[in-house]
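Friendly challenge for the regulars: who can give me the structure tokens for this chain first? No prize, just bragging rights.
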Amino acid sequence: MTTAAARPPALDPLDLLDLDDDLTAEERLVRDTVRDFVRKRVLPEIGDWFERGVFPKEIALELGALGLLGMHLEGYGCAGANASAYGVACRELEAADSGLRSFVSVQGSLAMFPIHAYGSQEQRQTWLPRMARGEAIGCFGLTEWDFGSEPAGMRTTARRDGGDYVLNGTKAWITNGGIADVAIVWAHTDSQNAAAADGSDVRGFVIPTSTRGFRAHNIERKISLRASVTSELNLEDCRVPASAMLPGVKGMRGPLSCLSEARYGIVWGALGAARTCYETALEYAKTRVQFGKPIAGFQLTQEKLVNMALELQKGQLLASKLGRLKDAHALSPLQVSIGKLNNVREALAICREARTILGASGVTLEYPIIRHMNNLESVLTYEGTSEIHTLILGQAITGIAAFS
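First reply, four minutes later:
Bragging rights claimed.
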């Protein structure tokens, strides 16, 4: 006697492999808390923020109240969450907008992390509790107009003068710069003013933005990351005490370790933007009727949706693996490069494919797709371009450096 085969369970179109089932209870709580905040606080207004080119500074306090700022750091008012919980938070924030996730990444991974990892006790106690609460905003001054992918070539200098350092130089494309209370600025410190080509003399400085000689002005006319503050920092005879220097690190290891922290958040965050675009395209395809039936019923549309869903799942598997490695203190910067290169590249491809399903409607801010597409063009570039991560991995695979 035969029995009818049991019907397989229905697939969740947003999580075909039920990967979120692998999250711990704490990680699910983070997911649900951030998703609820995004739904209630951000999504009703993000289109307007993007169109007007504004980032509401007051949202920093709200993010701080949720424990999201520096959440992966221990002590000093930080939540001490694990790497996967931080990744999930980045994913849910960027599902709203890359600018929102960028704010959290810069605050926690580029501004708070170096103070936490390399700062003095005085620097930690002065800044970290306030930054964790969102009462003080930080920025990270590494990139310059002529030195992005080659940061060791920076022109900014810090000259010792008695018990002080005097900084001169310009930093560009600095997220949060125009609203920051404190800047982590990296500069050459060679006493002969002959900057070391390998960046071995580079040091970081914790500089209150109210310091005389420090100025920031915002970079306008962007069509990407519009709901985010992007600035140029100018340091002209900016004098700070020697105690402003980060004592715990010297050379390019300092800023590069910060970038690795931020890149890890991007690995997860880009998937949030891609998921939103995929979900939008899926719902649109099921309701948009052409030739007598929803366009979701046509083979070409289904192929696009399936390809998007598969890349989302593969990207999530990669992010989850990196998260577990990070929690085990076994994650290398090379592995982070794999995640950043793959997930941002595939997320951007998903957003572009989703746009084709919406047709002309996909280029309006009535839907989130063109906003996410534009944002991801910046994400593709910052924290290491695709070309740089390709060459990093190429060198790891072949043993031959192709940078010069």
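The chain has a mean pLDDT of 95. The longest strand covers residues 164-175. Your move, everyone else.
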